[in-house]
């Protein structure tokens, strides 16, 4: 299915969200969270109700440092340190365990294999368009088989505020020396991907392929229910 809600101007750059757009991120994030949980559970005095404790620590650190909302990596690292230090570990011990717990998470987080048919689609699109990625997530593209696919990868935190803020889109436009209307962003979230790209004056494709409640009431220029609908751009 492909639905055109608005006409779009000529496109030179295709921008992709990563998680749940080019691969199913749900089992990957569950595996990463389990790896972190397994490490933390090995620590003396780690609470048996660790999910509740983790959420309390997560909320505490972002209240203390609101800027962490735009950087999921630093937010997780800060939460790990706070959660471990609060159990009575020394500063040095808390830093070491937080680093190891995060590494367990990160290693599992990047155990991704994008399917060959998606890679072929991206290669075909790259014959006609420049390809970039703009993500709120902390996946390390260089660690799996999307390595080398994108001319530019922008991540919330290191490269700007999280979507739906316009900053990463604006930065992409500036780096690529194009007009906003020459960039078409493809993503699975109305609230982050479509709203963020719309805020920046870019064109948008909403990959509507999973049930989800959204608050954003704006429209994407194009709506699809399969990533392979992008073959129409070939």
Assess the beta-strand content as a share of residues: 5-15%
Low-confidence stretches: none
Radius of gyration: 19 Å
Distance between the ends:
16 Å
Structural notes for this entry:
- The protein has 2 domains: 2-23 and 113-233, HAD superfamily/HAD-like (Rossmann fold, 3-Layer(aba) Sandwich); 27-109, Four Helix Bundle (Hemerythrin (Met), subunit A).
- 41% of the residues lie in helices and 13% in strands.
- The protein contains 7 helices and 7 strands; from the N terminus they run ββαααααββαβαββ.
- It has a 7-stranded mixed beta sheet, with helices on both faces.
Structure, briefly:
The chain contains seven helices and seven strands. By secondary structure, it is an alpha/beta fold.
List the helices and strands and how they pair.
Layout (H helix, E strand, L loop, with lengths): L1 E3 L8 E4 L9 H16 L8 H15 L7 H14 L5 H19 L6 H11 L3 E6 L16 E4 L11 H10 L6 E5 L2 H10 L3 E5 L14 E3 L10
Parallel strand pairs: 2-3, 2-5, 3-4, 5-6, 6-7
Antiparallel strand pairs: 1-7
């Amino acid at each position: 299915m492909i639905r055109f809600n608005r006409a779009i101007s000529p496109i030179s750059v295709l921008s992709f969200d990563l998680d749940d757009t080019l691969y199913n991120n749900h089992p990957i994030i569950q595996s990463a969270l389990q790896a972190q949980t397994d490490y933390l559970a090995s620590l003396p005095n780690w609470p048996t109700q660790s999910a509740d404790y983790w959420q309390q620590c997560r909320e505490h650190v972002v209240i203390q440092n609101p800027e962490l909302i735009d950087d999921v990596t630093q937010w997780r690292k800060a939460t790990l340190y706070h959660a471990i230090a609060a159990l009575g570990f020394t500063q040095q011990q808390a830093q070491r365990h937080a680093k190891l717990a995060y590494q367990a998470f990160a290693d599992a987080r990047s155990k991704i294999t994008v399917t060959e048919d998606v890679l072929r689609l991206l290669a075909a699109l790259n014959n006609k368009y420049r390809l970039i990625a703009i993500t709120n997530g902390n996946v390390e593209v260089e660690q799996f088989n999307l390595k080398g696919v994108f001319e530019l990868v922008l991540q919330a935190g290191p490269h700007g505020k999280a979507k739906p803020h316009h900053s990463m889109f604006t930065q992409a436009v500036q780096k690529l020396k194009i007009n906003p209307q020459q960039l078409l962003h493809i993503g699975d979230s109305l609230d982050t991907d479509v709203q963020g790209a719309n805020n920046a004056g870019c064109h948008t494709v909403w990959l509507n392929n999973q049930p989800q409640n959204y608050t954003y009431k704006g429209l994407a220029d194009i709506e699809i229910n399969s990533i392979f609908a992008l073959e129409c751009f070939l």
